[in-house]
Design brief:
By secondary structure, this protein is an alpha/beta fold. It has two domains: 143 residues, HAD superfamily/HAD-like (Rossmann fold, 3-Layer(aba) Sandwich), CATH 3.40.50.1000; 66 residues, DNA polymerase, domain 1, CATH 1.10.150. The protein has nine helices and six strands, in the order E-H-H-H-H-H-E-H-E-H-E-H-E-E-H. Strand 4, helix 8 and strand 5 form a beta-alpha-beta unit. The longest helix has 19 residues.
């Protein structure tokens, strides 16, 4: 087995879901008489669990209402996204490369388990991810590093031996706080906005084992 692992965020990394999440969130919030602007998405929504972004936008909500809101929004998202679902370019080949070289892999996402199942089953990528962590498994969502600390522990490696792949600024912060090198994907933010990462890619055609090792080796 390799002496490092790769931990993937899901939305915006495994699949380019963010435009569809954005549409679903806009429609959901409009139905509840809340209009959103771009700054709200960037500062209060992207990369966060439903629990966190809903309270960021709606304020304190009773637990049963929060659960119902989250279910409503995610069901709407899956309906909107299903006709368009596909993995990011080069991802399947990159995952096959990791498997062939015995490099451990995990998903660490702010999404609920229903969305993880939906994405992995519809893309046919489940076999590549024996370890998945979702929003049920953390008390504190990103930018808190909890999910990346737990993912590294599940893989049996220290965080400085785990490369995190992220698209959101809150996720980048979480990965860095956990002590990992972070690769940014430009699905949600520009390369300039992802300047706090260690390396930036457009999709997985831009990654090789040599590149991964160089990122790990650079101070």
């Amino acid at each position: 087995m390799a002496d490092f692992a790769v931990i993937f965020d899901m939305d915006g990394v495994i699949v380019h879901t963010n435009p569809y999440h954005k549409t679903a969130i806009r429609e959901f919030c409009a139905a509840h008489n809340i209009q959103l602007n771009e700054l709200t998405f960037q500062n209060k929504i992207y990369g966060r669990t439903n629990r966190d972004w809903l309270t960021n936008v709606f304020g304190e909500i009773e637990p049963d209402v929060l659960e119902a809101y989250a279910f409503e929004k995610e069901a709407l998202f899956r309906k909107i996204y299903e006709p368009h679902i596909k993995p990011l370019e080069g991802l399947k080949e990159f995952l096959e490369l990791l498997v062939a070289n015995h490099i451990p892999r995990a998903i660490a996402t702010s999404a609920p388990p229903e969305n993880v199942d939906f994405i992995l089953d519809k893309t046919g990528l489940r076999k590549f991810f024996p370890t998945t962590l979702d929003d049920r498994m953390v008390t504190h969502g990103k930018p808190n590093p909890e999910i990346y600390l737990k993912a590294a522990k599940a893989l049996g490696l220290p965080n400085n031996k785990c490369l995190v792949i992220e698209d959101s600024l809150s996720g980048v912060t979480a990965g860095r706080k956990a002590g990992s090198k972070v690769i940014g994907v430009t699905t949600t933010h520009s390369a300039e906005e992802l300047k706090e990462t260690n390396y930036v890619i457009h999709d997985f055609q831009d990654l090789s084992l040599t590149t991964l090792q160089q990122i790990l080796d650079n101070p």
